[in-house]
Specification:
The chain is mainly beta. About 15% of the residues lie in helices and about 35% in strands. Among the domains are: about 120 residues, Immunoglobulin-like (Sandwich); about 130 residues, C2 domain (Immunoglobulin-like), CATH 2.60.40.150. It has 3 helices and 18 strands.
């Protein structure tokens, strides 16, 4: 038999076998789809609807047929899905000695810190440890080079802290990324009110880092005497935005009091040169009728002085009983009203925008 005859014989046989196999697999596939439909289960993909969050493992799940609203029957693997906080976490331990009035803070480690530098992979983190609102004592860890999973294992001790004072403090752990050329970048912070912590036992924490203030903090006091006198004291600011080429600012504070049926009254502090944490200690008095104080508002604007161009806005807040720019601003004003002739002191976080509705900004 010649080769051509063999080829003519083999081709029909090959086609026949292929056809039989295709029919077989098609039948099996149809039966599997039918059994799944009879069981009332359909496979649904969530890849398109699930947000693209780093460090999230997206797994398939099965949902009951005709139930596409709320209830979904997850596979066991989905129950273990974890969403990592985008700014990472920090681990630390607190131990208080009541007899010696000492608080020890062990800064252990952080994990999954984000990249803040221009060059991929660079992160040189360190931590500032501070007790608020005093800020009298603060400690700094060492810088850990080129890591998003730093380990510090450094202990810091705050002394002269009787339990009564300790329960009025807030522990701040602020993580920064060190930069040799420009200002260090803020990665995030943890604020832990110590009155919420059982200090009788050693406590360990692993907390997510949250964005810190972008504009800085301002310490102020308010005192209203029912004889129509409001005293506002601008004490100091902390960690203001750097507005100048030398990574510093020349800050001053403008105040504007608005009362019903009265023109706005304005005041201004002195300029403190070349600092991001200025001390002002300046008091200002306003005449406000007792019948109008509840409806009044006080806008505080922190500016950066410029010799050549226009002064730049650093941040602002609005103190008022109804239209305050935030919870702390409203609380401060209400505390002043509830405690006449008593000076009420409070820290405030500056904001980019703090105007009440229908009211013009300070110029």
């Amino acid at each position: 038999m010649e080769v051509s005859d063999l080829l003519l014989t083999a081709i029909p046989i090959t086609l026949g076998v292929t056809l039989i196999l295709c029919c077989y697999f098609h039948k099996c596939s149809s039966s599997r789809k039918k059994s799944a439909a009879e069981a009332g289960i359909v496979t649904v993909s969530i890849l398109e609807s699930f947000p693209m969050v780093p460090n999230v493992r997206v797994l398939p799940y099965v949902a009951e047929k005709h139930n596409t609203t709320q209830q979904q029957q997850l596979l066991p693997e989905v129950a273990t899905l974890q969403v990592e906080h985008p700014r990472g976490h920090i681990s630390f331990t607190l131990k208080y000695n009541a007899q010696e009035s000492k608080l020890k803070v062990l800064v252990q480690s952080a994990r999954n810190l984000p990249m803040t530098d221009f060059f991929p992979g660079n992160c040189d983190p360190y931590v500032w440890v501070t007790l608020l609102p005093d800020r009298k004592h603060r400690f700094k860890t060492k810088v850990r080079k080129n890591t998003h999973q730093p380990h510090w294992c450094e202990t810091f001790c705050f002394e002269d802290l009787p339990i009564e004072k300790l329960q009025t403090q807030v522990l701040q752990l602020h993580v920064f990324d060190y930069d040799r050329i420009t200002r260090d970048d803020s990665i995030g912070e943890v604020l832990l009110p110590l009155w919420q912590v059982d200090m009788l036992e050693k406590q360990s924490f692993c907390e997510p880092l949250k964005p810190a203030s972008e504009y800085g903090d301002l310490l102020m006091s308010l005192c209203y005497v029912p004889s129509d006198k409001l005293t506002v004291t601008v004490l100091k600011a902390w960690d203001l935005r750097s507005m100048d080429i030398n990574l510093k600012s020349d800050p001053y504070v403008k105040l504007c009091l608005r009362s019903p049926e009265k023109r706005a009254e304005k005041r201004k502090t002195k300029i403190v040169k070349c600092t991001l944490s200025p001390v002002f200690n300046e008091a200002f008095s306003f005449n406000v009728a007792n019948t109008n104080i509840e409806e009044s508002s006080l806008e505080i604007v922190v500016m950066d002085f410029d010799n050549i161009g226009r002064d730049e806005l650093i941040g602002r807040i609005m103190l008022a009983g109804r239209d305050g720019s935030g919870e702390s601003e409203t609380k401060h004003w209400l505390e002043m009203l509830a405690n006449p002739s008593i000076t009420v002191v409070q820290w405030h976080r500056l904001k980019a925008e703090a105007r009440s509705r229908g009211k013009k900004a300070v110029h």
